[in-house]
Structures are given as C-alpha cells and as structure tokens.
Amino acid sequence: MATFVPPNERNARSPHLPFGDHRGAPFYGKDVISVSQFSRTDLEYIFGVAKEMRAMVERVGTFDLLKGKILANLFYEPSTRTSSSFLAAMERLGGSVIPINEVRYSSVAKGESLPDTIRTLECYADVIVIRHPEVGSAEVAAKYSKKPVINAGDGIGEHPTQALLDLFTIKEELGQVDGLTVTMLGDLKNGRTVHSLSRLLSTFVVRLNYVSPEILRMPPELVEELKVKGVSQKEFDALEPVLAETDVLYVTRVQKERFESQDLYEKVKGAFVITPETMEQAKEKMIIMHPLPRVGEISMEVDDDPRAAYFRQMEYGLYVRMALLAMVLGKA
Ligand code: CP
Prior knowledge:
Elements: H1 7-10, H2 40-60, E1 70-75, H3 81-92, E2 96-100, H4 114-124, E3 127-132, H5 137-144, E4 149-154, H6 160-174, E5 181-185, H7 192-201, E6 207-211, H8 220-228, E7 232-236, H9 240-243, E8 248-251, H10 262-268, H11 276-280, E9 287-289, H12 310-328
Parallel strand pairs: 1-2, 1-3, 3-4, 5-6, 5-8, 6-7, 8-9
Helix pairs in contact: 2-12, 3-12, 4-5, 6-7, 6-12
The site of phosphoric acid mono(formamide)ester (CP) has 9 residues, from helix 3.
C-alpha cells in the first residue's frame, strides 16, 4: 500500500538542490533554475545522456521514454527555439505538451497571479517549463510547484538550458572547454544567455573577453562573482584586439525590449556586425555562436562559413532538453 504523504510535506520537495546531491535518483524531481546548480560531474552526466538522445533520434526518431508524462510549456515572453525545442523534445520522448505560448489568451489576461497559474498547471502536468520577464520568476514558480520547474529565461537573469546547450555545442565542436578563449559580444548587460554561460564556463579554465558598447557592459556584480572564482576576464569596446586569439565568438542581439529609451537603442543597435571580412581575421579552427534570434549582428553571408555553428547549436539544444526532461522525470 502506498504511504500517505500529507500535502504540506509533498510541498516540501527540495527545490533546486545542487544536481550533484545524489540522494536517491540523482536528478529526479529537481528544478533547473540556475547554472550555479551544476558541477562538472553533473555536466558530464547531462552531456552523456544528450549524446544518447541524439543517437536514439538518429536511429528511431521518436521513442516512448516519457510516454504518459505531460509537460506544461508556459511562456510569458516570445520564443521560437526554446519553446519549440522543449515541445519537440517531449514529443520525441513520447510525452505530451500543454502549450501556453501566448499568455494573453490564458487566465493571466484576467489577472491570475504566477503562483495560481503554477498551482493550476501542476494539477495537469508532470513538469513545468517557464519563461517570464521578471528576474527570479522561475524560482518563485518552483516554490509553489510540487512538480519540477525548468527556467526557460527569467528576464535579464538566467537562461540555464541555453547555457547547457551552448556548452554542449562547444564540447562537441571543439572537443574540449579547458584552455579556450571565449569572446562574448553585444548586449552583455541584458543578455541572460551570456550571464548563464559565463557562470557555467567559470567551472572550467577559460579566458573570457567581453566586447560591448560602454552602456551594455557585463553586470559588474557578475564580473565580481567570476573574479572571486579566479576567472580571467577582460573588457573591450572593439572586437579587433581579441578576434585572432578567440576560439569561441559568442555573438548576442542588442535586446530592444529591455531598453527604456528607443533613442538609446537606435544608437547602439548596429554597434557590431560580423561579416565575411571579420571572419578573415579569425582562427581557422574556431566557432561563431549565437543564441538567436539575430537582427543583423551576423551577416547572412557568414552562414556558409564552416565556423558558423549557430544553426548546429539549435539542434544540440534539442538533445540537451530531451536529456533534462528525462532526468528530472527520473527516466535517465
Ligand atoms: N535562444 C533563445 O532563447 O531563443 P528563443 O527566444 O527563440 O527561445
């Protein structure tokens, strides 16, 4: 007979414990809120599962690992890649999806609070993926949910699953992470992808270059956080001084939606554009990445360059998200 667990104890599920906490199944029931949760051992494990997912997709396309499981895909902000890759990941694993891609057609438009929306979805789903404009929103959602919550981007805060797929891309494309020089370019102030990726890279021995307009610098508190961890970081306002030494050029969009003044956005939006001429100065063995969408910061003429990894990067994301869903649902 199943043991009765009082509702208040069910709520006491430990939220976002470090993944390395191996009491019971290592990833079962855990939230994915910040990259700070992951140790190097966890990353190796996740990437091992992601490779198995890739092999299975290549062999059979879809399989029934998560048959009977339901994902609630809750997006308060626009998304193409994150939303559709989580949906594809769940369907390739044989599960189902409640897609809420446009919250204005949900009861959020009637004023429903985030906690109540989460309490609703946990009644119907086994795992919740959330994107929300406020920093800390995924953590709030996790607090109110008995089911695992995966952060798909909380404002300018973090985008942990993007950072995981970015790191997986680097490992698969260049074979290693230690010893690399990673140059991040663009809107480093508002770009949650670079916030998460720089934190995740601090687990490795890397050199980080930050190239941006003055007003879009990496947040000083994040630079300080990584400095304390001994990460080599340098800031620049031009790409030329660091391009020739760069192994990974991580380009980001200037985030129009985060600007209070459109005049200011217009002043900085075209600050950096990567062209075939730019790539002439880059190493032969390096990659250029972008979380996408792009709005002009990488010329389409660069797309055929074998070093352009940003479309391959999206596919790596499918396998990483399949791995995460299987793990938090106790099936990997
Ligand atoms: N990289 C990324 O988060 O893309 P979307 O905004 O399309 O999900």
